[in-house]
Amino acid sequence: MKTLLLASTATMLIAAPAFAQEEPADPAEETVIVVLGDGLAETPATPAYSHVEIEREQIVSSGSGRLEDVLSNVAGFQQFRRSDSRSANPTAQGATLRALGGNATSRALVLLDGVPMTDPFFGHIPFSAIAPERLGLIHVTRGGGSGPFGSGALAGTIELNSADASALGLFTGQVLANQREDTEMSASIAPEFGNGYAVFSGRWDRGDGFFTTPLADRVPATSRANFDDWSASGRLVQSLGPVELQLRGSAFETSRTLRFEGADSTTSGEDVSLRLVSRGSWQVDALAYAQWRNFSNIIVSSTRYVPVLDQKNTPAEGQGGKIEVRPPVGDDMTLRLGADFRRSAGDLFEDAYSAFSGNLTEERFAGGVNTNFGLFAENDIELGPVTLTGGLRADRYAIKDGYYRSFTGAGAPVRNDSYANRSDWEVTWRAGALVQANDVITFRAAAYTGLRLPTLNELYRPFVVFPVTTNANENLVPEKLEGYEVGADFAVDPGTRFSVTVFDNKVKNAIANVTIATNLRERQNLDAIDAFGVEFATSVQRGPWGFDASMALTNSEVRGTGFAAGLDGLTPSQTPKFSASATASYRADNGMNFAATLRHVSSQFEDDQETDVLPAATTVDLFAQMPVAGRLSAVARVENLFDETIVTRNQGGSMDIGVPQTVWLGLRYGF
């Protein structure tokens, strides 16, 4: 796979001038490609909820070339840690919005072409498997609510839409390298045929990485954050009369080393999905998918620098589907009716070793199955300048077949626990209104509830980040969201937009890692996490010049009684009170592209006790693209221009740091 990516990318770039010479001089002679590949159109009331779009021009011009970096342009988006997908433990890469953090599991629902991307065992997002250059548009909705796969959308929904053939062109490819000799290579081919097109893409990122350990704390066993990631995908889109067929398959594998030599982690996965879309008078969106994942991780002692835990195998799978029907009920009304289903199953196999003798001390096995069946209905009504919307969702969930078993190194049983099956119904709803006061101002208001099941990881898998041990909890109950928001959108002129949103979101039964003793935590349901905040966004376009900015100020607090009484009023771990992002750009018609992005994240706490602080961080990233010949361009990217120290972990003074100043140079074709 890696050899194929290297050869194909190099061939495309070398041949780029020839491709440029073969392009027709008259644009009118070019074949027009019908844009296919999306789901059903957004409903009229979609803007009633805080809504942000990131277009392809922004997606492919970030300083790092990583999806999580692109999403950080939306203030309030965060992962559990500040690390990106080259240096983070994959299981810590949950996505959330609105400071509803304190947990490495995703509280935001992430969809790729309608398919949930949440890992079926851990609940994180495989960001390294989703190459930004394959995307055409990103929709971010902050706030929970009903709809297809609405379960899990506590903090909001992030919809990733693949780029179609018209956006990609026949060939695209890029090769880049940085001063540490890390490399990034990707290539795509998107031929048009029949009544549609196909897209085949691949990407390979590799390198020795940077030191995540501060210089003063390094020892001979300290390792750079080595990474070696590849991903490949294929997508077929065809119009078959009144029905559009969308078929997608993908595979990925990531390998990373964290802190010490031998502390290696790997993730891998395969996905297939089939989608049928009908845009006739009776509109239909039907989807079925299957996913397979695996994870392994070796934990190395931070005092003796030998392996103490081998999480050797964590196979997991997910299946699901949904059908949405929009019957013809009139020009001023949009009715959505549907059902969806999701299943997650997985098992854990790990071995513990003595740091002193190296002998096997314990074998552990755990796993279970979660299912969720949902029914939903939503209706939008347009009444002149007023648009009203309301939705209702009923979910039947089941948590079953849970177990935990452990044996000594000699094979003697230590624990053999089988947990009771549980199931129940939960009803959630959302409602909103849009009022267009005039051509400039639109007011909006919304209220909603949401639901998230505990993951298999939270229920059954303990873990260690030395010296802290975190226990699982098979008795966790689903998280429930209650929220409301009001806002206003200002369209001053066609190139100037501004929005403000005030929100109050409360996650009841919020799952968090609660400290119960020195160096010992357990996953528990808190009474709630309550987040009150204000979000600002602006976009100004003047010819080739652009400015986009967003800012979020949030006061997020734990509500706790009983065992969690000591946490009441404290800030959830890993949750900043303030975040902001601003990008100034210049995009010329000839392909010249410059962008500078300023980001700031305020200080936050490592733990739930507010003892260890992660200092505030301000970074500047740069991007430049200069045409060379035809569609061939030279590219330069800079991450963390001023080499800001980004502390990503602080446990009693033991720290990890994020990406230092990094300069990338390369070539790209077709962008």
UniProtKB/TrEMBL annotation:
GO terms for molecular function: siderophore uptake transmembrane transporter activity. It is found in: Cell outer membrane. It is a multi-pass membrane protein. GO terms for biological process: siderophore transmembrane transport. The keyword Methyltransferase does not apply. PROSITE patterns: TONB_DEPENDENT_REC_3. Residues 220-641 form the TonB-dependent receptor-like beta-barrel domain. GO terms for cellular component: cell outer membrane. Keywords: Cell outer membrane, Membrane, Receptor, Signal, TonB box, Transmembrane, Transmembrane beta strand, Transport. Residues 1-20 form the signal peptide. Residues 53-157 form the TonB-dependent receptor plug domain. Pfam families: Plug, TonB_dep_Rec_b-barrel. Belongs to the TonB-dependent receptor family. PANTHER family: FERRIC VIBRIOBACTIN RECEPTOR VIUA, TONB-DEPENDENT OUTER MEMBRANE RECEPTOR. This is TonB-dependent receptor. It comes from Alteraurantiacibacter aestuarii.
